[in-house]
């Protein structure tokens, strides 16, 4: 799995951090998404897909 | 189609149970998930009631928040220019204006920052519970607990000095219509706006360690913008959380087997908060969006200028997304994404704070008063049926 983010669209709601805290974080200054792990291990795939669904501004894309 | 059949319906508002949306929504979701409707002000437009349609509208930038103000009888496809929102009122703006304000604020409301506030929220909660324990019940839980918690937290965040907090609390209770008229609520809102304006001037002269000082220093916002942003944060973070705490308490008391499960296993609390948000969805009449372009949505043509009311209340009871019985309150329900905080670029900025406040407040309340119960029959609890934010006007409880 490869995770791609479109940071410019991020509205900083924090849904991805709740859904997949090992893969996403928020930048301290403006709360926008930080991708911690662009190729997360299998065990986190379900969390990442959940984060992509929850993202309110469709920032997260998952390529398999 | 005859003339009478083409007259669109009005928004369903009559609840038959305090926790359930008006029953018409179920039929609408199944038969006409995007239906013509007439708004209270006479505007005609569309009502989106299913999860997929509501989410699609809120997530689509072709639907804007800068909605047309239309007089009764005006066409929904009126192409006259939109009136600009007041400076700083970013909830009524679209990108890129909205982005500019949102980016200044999101850093203040991150998951991490809000979790760091937990000890402070715990302190306020303990103080309020101590005060409750000092008196004999019954007490009104709204005034004694549910409203002061978010009010104190937002005062702390914004940096309201202690000397002003009593006025702030009094005005904010009046502002959300606690035993006051619409005129008094309006006066209280003006008073709060003035207080925040004064606060902006103070922080500009002498910045301290708080959100408003950060905004004064970080951005290039005018005093008017800062005042409106501050007022907006206060209103948005206040009435909503207060009502979720009070209505959430009532919901748990009225579902004793769910409350017992939660007490037996406190690890269910995070899920219970999400389920309360879904099940109670207190933003009962919206949000509303206006198509800024012609849009094809799930096979339906929507013309530019059409206003769509999305019912998050209805969407959160959609059986296609909440399998089993979506009308059942179940603290063990699998955590499926709900729309209680909205969707799209305007999704609630303060949602992580709301989660922390609800979790801390509800856990501590039921810990402290294991015999907490309603002091009046549930049917006599005054519900906020006609308010934009649903909930209870008062919640008499005893223990």
What does this molecule look like?
The complex is a heterodimer of chains A (64) and B (399). Chain A has one domain: Alpha-Beta Plaits (2-Layer Sandwich). Chain A has 2 helices and 4 strands; from the N terminus they run βαββαβ. In chain A, strands 1-4 form a two-stranded antiparallel sheet. Chain A has a two-stranded antiparallel sheet with strand order 2-3. In chain A, a hairpin with a 6-residue loop joins strand 2 and strand 3. Chain B has one domain: Orthogonal Bundle (Cytochrome p450), CATH 1.10.630.10. In chain B, helix 10 packs across helix 11, helix 13 crosses helix 17 and helix 15 packs across helix 17. A 6-stranded mixed sheet of chain B has the order 1-2-3-9-6-4, covered by helices on one side. In chain B, strands 5-11-10 form a 3-stranded antiparallel sheet. Chain B is an alpha+beta fold and 399 residues long. The chains are: A alpha+beta (64), B alpha+beta (399). Chains A and B meet through helix 1 and helix 2 of A and helix 4 of B.
Give a nutshell description of this structure.
Chain A has 64 residues and is α+β, with helices and mostly antiparallel strands. Helix content of chain A is 23%, strand content 22%. The model of chain B is unreliable at 1-5 and 69-75 (pLDDT under 50).
Reconstruct the topology from this structure.
The complex is a heterodimer of chains A (64) and B (399).
Chain A lengths: L1 E4 L9 H5 L4 E3 L6 E3 L9 H10 L5 E4 L1
Antiparallel strand pairs in A: 1-4, 2-3
Chain B lengths: L2 H4 L2 E2 L13 H8 L2 E5 L5 E5 L2 H8 L4 E2 L32 H10 L4 H6 L1 H16 L5 E2 H6 L1 H11 L3 H14 L6 H24 L5 H8 L4 H14 L2 H16 L1 H9 L4 H12 L7 E4 L3 E3 L2 E3 L4 E4 L1 H4 L35 H18 L4 E2 L21 E3 L1
Parallel strand pairs in B: 1-2, 3-9
Antiparallel strand pairs in B: 2-3, 4-6, 5-11, 6-9, 7-8, 10-11
Helix pairs in contact in B: 6-8, 6-17, 8-9, 9-10, 10-11, 10-12, 13-17, 15-17
